[in-house]
Amino acid sequence: MPVAIITGASKGLGRALAEALAARGWDLVLDARTPEVLQETASGLRDTHGTRVTAVPGDVTDAGHRAELVAAAWKLGGVDLLVSNASALGAEPLLRLESLPLEGLRRALEVNVVAALALVQEALTLLRAARTGAVVTVSSDAAAEAYETWGGYGASKAALDHLAAVLGEEEPGLRVWAVDPGDMATDLYAAAVPDDDDPRPAPASVVPAFLRLLDERPASGRYGAPALLEGRR
What we know:
By secondary structure, the chain is α/β, with parallel strands linked by helices. It is built from eight helices and seven strands, in the order βαβαβαβαβαβααβα. Strands 3-2-1-4-5-6-7 form a seven-stranded parallel beta sheet, with helices on both faces. Strand 2, helix 2 and strand 3 form a beta-alpha-beta unit. Helix 3 packs parallel to helix 4 and helix 4 runs parallel beside helix 5. The two termini are 28 Å apart. This is SDR family NAD(P)-dependent oxidoreductase.
């Protein structure tokens, strides 16, 4: 069975992706910072789908934790897919740049950019060995559009997009997709803009866009989930 590492997988989009892949028979290595919630997610997937699911709680900015994730995947057979979904906002709620704590910006860059690249580096040998190795980095429309208060987070996701684009050029044997999932009802968005109570789609509603990438394996690049769901690229 193929093996995927998914970061930020205890809830939201990460959990929805894990559910969809487990339903397809994938074995999984899941990361999140809250052990109890992560273990509950992993147990539910094992019980429902019968696949092998390894929960590895920790912080993706920690080198030892990243090594644990890749070692766990190796025990399951390798790494066919790496999904960098774990994200940090930099401030909760979001703030204008004039007030953004620099330590918060550093945290967003460490989680969203540095740790994502470091995990790719850790897993690269196994990804190259996979028949259909792929990397997915979860982006944001804030990486491409200027929204008030989203400057720090958007800058980190823009940097991640560029790293993904260069990785796709440097690793032609892999598929490297940066995916903007669009608006979703997640804890991350609620923390970013707590006063916004407008209804938003559930994370599971965009999962078919990610599955389309895995099924069709288009060229490495940046994709928007709404376009993929409409049948466009």
